[in-house]
Amino acid sequence: MNKNIKALYEIAQKETRKILGLMSGTSLDGLDLALCEVSGEGENTIVKIQEFETVDYNDDIKTEIRKVFAQKTIDFQHLVLLNEWIADLHAGMINDCLAKWNIPASEVDLIASHGQTVLHAPKFLHQQEKFPNATLQIGDGDHIAVKTGIITLSDFRQKHVAAGGEGAPLAVYGDYLLFSKKGENRIMLNMGGIANFTYLPASQNAEEVFVTDTGTANTLIDIFTKQFFPEKSFDKDAEIAKRGTVNQEFLSELKSDAFFKQSFPKTIGQELFNHDFVNSALVKLGLQNISAPDLLATLTRLSAETIAEAVLFVVENTKTPIEEFKVYMSGGGARNPLMVKWLQELLPCKFEKSDVLGISGDAKEAVLFAVLANETVAGGNYNFGSQKGIPSVTMGKISFPD
């Protein structure tokens, strides 16, 4: 037997596996690294975070990624070079963190690397009938495995697409296994660049679970905060938006986009929600001189309303009163007091940060990829029935160090 296959088999037999989950989102802030102790599998999965760190991307890394990020026309050579470069950077960040934590690589069983998304293209967006849903994450797993000496699982989203999904949101798998609770209807709401949520029914019936993107959360707010205030990367505590007034005509124009009329579940990214999305609406309405506070207030309201409308769609289909639901928030939007205030007004139910469930909201996405890797190696393809957008598959390509 090949020694790597033998090692993988032995890892699968362990009572507890040490898995390093990696996540870098579309905000391009940096790389989240969550070193997890994972025991069990399926509904018996238990995760303890041993270490967590976010390594910020410097301006050079952000600039290089933005040359290809969410764009239809790019320098193809640059994309190829980035695939290896990002992997090498991530491997270096892993090695540095392990050294900082005083943990030898030999003690880490697996790395679960999401990679860096550069393009998300569901059929709704690309509108080319002969082509399927598509998504692309760079940061090759072989490079990470070789540079760290640790078996690496990567490129998780491709199996999701191959099995009929859109490659997102993947949070549903970890959400169900870690956070489902008998007797409580839960909405696991992640408000990163894009907002998405998982509905976890009180029945714990996997076939009733639902997941979807809702649209922008922080993406547009961040883009235009930087445009008006180059020294700021985001509207901290909604300080700017709080000074503004929502422009209802502008808000209605933004919400008239075909994406918001598309049936659930659905996925999206900055391929739609970008400068052009907002600027075209401003030009159409003659609002090019809108103030920064009014613009950011309107964009914040857009996020809140479209999230709430998506949640209410699910609630209405369950025939359960909204008051019997509980929303658990994570992502940067959970720290935006104006967005949260409006969500609480639009959704009359209880709200909590997801941290109360025992896993930091900042670490949650990296942890979820560790859970996906654990299922691939030691679990199985949990059955979500015929649910649209949640194929019952294991995910992740396996790369050996030698």
From TrEMBL:
Species the sequence originates in: Flavobacterium anhuiense
Q: Which GO terms describe its biological process?
A: amino sugar metabolic process; peptidoglycan turnover
Q: Does the keyword Methyltransferase apply?
A: no
Name used for this protein in its record: Anhydro-N-acetylmuramic acid kinase
Q: Which UniProt keywords apply?
A: Kinase, Transferase
Keyword Oxidoreductase attributed: no
SUPFAM superfamilies, A to Z: Actin-like ATPase domain
Enumerate the InterPro entries for this protein. Anhydro_N_Ac-Mur_kinase (IPR005338), ATPase_NBD (IPR043129)
GO MF annotation list: ATP binding; kinase activity; phosphotransferase activity, alcohol group as acceptor
